[in-house]
Amino acid sequence: MQTHTFKPDMPPPKQAIGVLAWLRENLFSGLFNSLLTLFALYLLWLIVPPLINWAIINADWVGTTRADCTSEGACWVFIQQRFGQFMYGFYPSELRWRVDLTVILAIVGAAPLFIDAMPRKARYGIAFLVVYPLLAYWLLHGGFLGLDLVPTSQWGGLTLTLVIAAVGIAGALPLGIMLALGRRSDMPAIRVICVTFIEFWRGVPLITVLFMSSVMLPLFLPEGMNFDKLVRALIGVILFQSAYVAEVVRGGLQAIPKGQYEAAAAMGLGYWRMMGLVILPQALKMVIPGIVNTFIALFKDTSLVIIIGLFDLLNSIKQATTDPAWLGMATEGYVFAALVFWIFCFGMSRYSMHLERKLDTGHKR
Amino acid sequence: MSDVNMQPTQPEGIIQMDGVHKWYGQFHVLKDINMNVQQGERIVLCGPSGSGKSTTIRCLNRLEEHQQGRILVDGTELTHDLKQIEAVRREVGMVFQHFNLFPHLTVLQNCTLSPMWVRKTPRREAEEMAMHYLERVRIPEQAHKFPGQLSGGQQQRVAIARALCMQPKIMLFDEPTSALDPEMVKEVLDTMIGLAEDGMTMLCVTHEMGFARTVANRVIFMDRGEIVEEAEPNKFFSNPENERTQLFLSQILH
């Protein structure tokens, strides 16, 4: 009998390496690519140096008034002087520590959830989700247990933006998941209700929703019955965004093979356990990019509350630029707003990429 | 057996199908299926594709709904009552053609999920039991891997262990080796033979005639939604009565 001798594994052949080879391959691989590269370089040369000059080299960084801005570049003194207003709106300055504490508690409280080795993580997470909102409400709003009341009309700036975004996300995600499940339900009544709800809220612009909640809703409510403008805006944002989340989640549910449902059912899992333990973990993982996309849109859409006179970050900045003492600061203000929005949105995007990698269990083959 | 309505001709089995019919829309998939399986019996169902053999065993844990007739599993009748259905599913394990392991859970978690959530077994106990059955299918070393990291044969053995972890009285196999590479068929069949030797009640839809010959007490041949012939394996393979059965056997046994 013959024994086959297998050939040993060999390393792959050496590719051309080094900076020059990389440049030739990626930037100058042909006439057309070379022209594109040169054109792109030209554009960068047009844009980047003036921007750096304006924003950094020629900018004024220190001072207290408009008069301290003497150079041609950006006047960051304006941002510095109005920073408190941008962050807290009209929140009384002596009580701003309460906002800071709310944010610190969120970070400290949520931190254990990001530690992989944390025992009883699910239980802690649920406890956090129940306790923190109450704590945050007490700290921000107050009016009981020894804290002075700060009405929501005084909330503003980045604080308000974060409140709307956080409440919107925390409300829209569970509601959206329930709507997605409802839309795929076997029960016709539930299906019709969910489809109607989703199609209604997807069919109207958010501005209309906010406008209606603020201007028209009070007309329909009985005399004397009125609830907080911010609460109405929050409900509007949650209902509106939940319809989008629902459609994203439904996409994920549809991508789960029928065999997963059958295996779960055959093992004796009931509907809610099947969904909660087998289907949703897979479906949600699959649609992380879509969900985060919706949340980034939600975060940016918070600036639409300007239409109902709430002073979020953008509206606070807009208002500051109309101050006679700081005329002509619109560019600085909006660049700052863009930077803050970008930092948060980019953060969400990176976190979602990290999550996708972490949850990848290698079954995509 | 005091029930006067019980038909005296057949002893009460762990599975009883009486005059079961099923339709997909207009299409009549199951026609008057009668089957009585005793505890510890090993049944092999075979037949051409579309003959209703998979549908038949999928009716036994209500993955498919029958529209006429009666199905009793371990004394519980399958009706629209969800409680009854879940009670039956606790006692009936199922192994699928495409394994259907949960890809987001490790092998061990796949095995402990149902015991922990349906039977309320404490985690530690469930894990011990899972390891016991993983050893039995000879892959305890894979317990902490994800299904996507295993070969097809290994995945199917995990699927068998997962079903066993619920300590079922009956095991259903729906073409368990059809999706496997030829080299992996044997490892799965060996596991199933081991199970049969321990006295498990098994219903297998399979084209593995060697397995049917060694393990089955009875072979049931189906075509076009009907049971055409039913016999113990020796007779079934050497001396089939029905013409359709002879044709089928001549086509699959070369």
TrEMBL record, chain A:
<dbReference type="InterPro" id="IPR000515">
    <property type="entry name" value="MetI-like"/>
</dbReference>
<feature type="transmembrane region" description="Helical">
    <location>
        <begin position="326"/>
        <end position="349"/>
    </location>
</feature>
<comment type="similarity">
    <text>Belongs to the binding-protein-dependent transport system permease family. HisMQ subfamily.</text>
</comment>
<keyword id="KW-0813">Transport</keyword>
<dbReference type="InterPro" id="IPR010065">
    <property type="entry name" value="AA_ABC_transptr_permease_3TM"/>
</dbReference>
<feature type="transmembrane region" description="Helical">
    <location>
        <begin position="203"/>
        <end position="221"/>
    </location>
</feature>
<feature type="domain" description="ABC transmembrane type-1">
    <location>
        <begin position="158"/>
        <end position="347"/>
    </location>
</feature>
<dbReference type="Pfam" id="PF00528">
    <property type="entry name" value="BPD_transp_1"/>
</dbReference>
<dbReference type="InterPro" id="IPR043429">
    <property type="entry name" value="ArtM/GltK/GlnP/TcyL/YhdX-like"/>
</dbReference>
<dbReference type="InterPro" id="IPR035906">
    <property type="entry name" value="MetI-like_sf"/>
</dbReference>
<keyword id="KW-0812">Transmembrane</keyword>
<keyword id="KW-1003">Cell membrane</keyword>
<keyword id="KW-1133">Transmembrane helix</keyword>
<protein>
    <submittedName>
        <fullName>Amino acid ABC transporter permease</fullName>
    </submittedName>
</protein>
<feature type="transmembrane region" description="Helical">
    <location>
        <begin position="265"/>
        <end position="284"/>
    </location>
</feature>
<feature type="transmembrane region" description="Helical">
    <location>
        <begin position="27"/>
        <end position="48"/>
    </location>
</feature>
<keyword id="KW-0029">Amino-acid transport</keyword>
<keyword id="KW-0472">Membrane</keyword>
<feature type="transmembrane region" description="Helical">
    <location>
        <begin position="122"/>
        <end position="140"/>
    </location>
</feature>
<feature type="transmembrane region" description="Helical">
    <location>
        <begin position="160"/>
        <end position="182"/>
    </location>
</feature>
<feature type="transmembrane region" description="Helical">
    <location>
        <begin position="290"/>
        <end position="314"/>
    </location>
</feature>
Automatic annotation (TrEMBL), chain B:
<keyword id="KW-0997">Cell inner membrane</keyword>
<keyword id="KW-0813">Transport</keyword>
<keyword id="KW-1003">Cell membrane</keyword>
<dbReference type="GO" id="GO:0005524">
    <property type="term" value="F:ATP binding"/>
</dbReference>
<dbReference type="InterPro" id="IPR050086">
    <property type="entry name" value="MetN_ABC_transporter-like"/>
</dbReference>
<dbReference type="InterPro" id="IPR003593">
    <property type="entry name" value="AAA+_ATPase"/>
</dbReference>
<dbReference type="InterPro" id="IPR030679">
    <property type="entry name" value="ABC_ATPase_HisP-typ"/>
</dbReference>
<comment type="similarity">
    <text>Belongs to the ABC transporter superfamily.</text>
</comment>
<dbReference type="Pfam" id="PF00005">
    <property type="entry name" value="ABC_tran"/>
</dbReference>
<keyword id="KW-0472">Membrane</keyword>
<dbReference type="InterPro" id="IPR017871">
    <property type="entry name" value="ABC_transporter-like_CS"/>
</dbReference>
<dbReference type="InterPro" id="IPR003439">
    <property type="entry name" value="ABC_transporter-like_ATP-bd"/>
</dbReference>
<keyword id="KW-0067">ATP-binding</keyword>
<feature type="domain" description="ABC transporter">
    <location>
        <begin position="15"/>
        <end position="249"/>
    </location>
</feature>
<protein>
    <submittedName>
        <fullName>Amino acid ABC transporter ATP-binding protein</fullName>
    </submittedName>
</protein>
<keyword id="KW-0547">Nucleotide-binding</keyword>
<dbReference type="InterPro" id="IPR027417">
    <property type="entry name" value="P-loop_NTPase"/>
</dbReference>
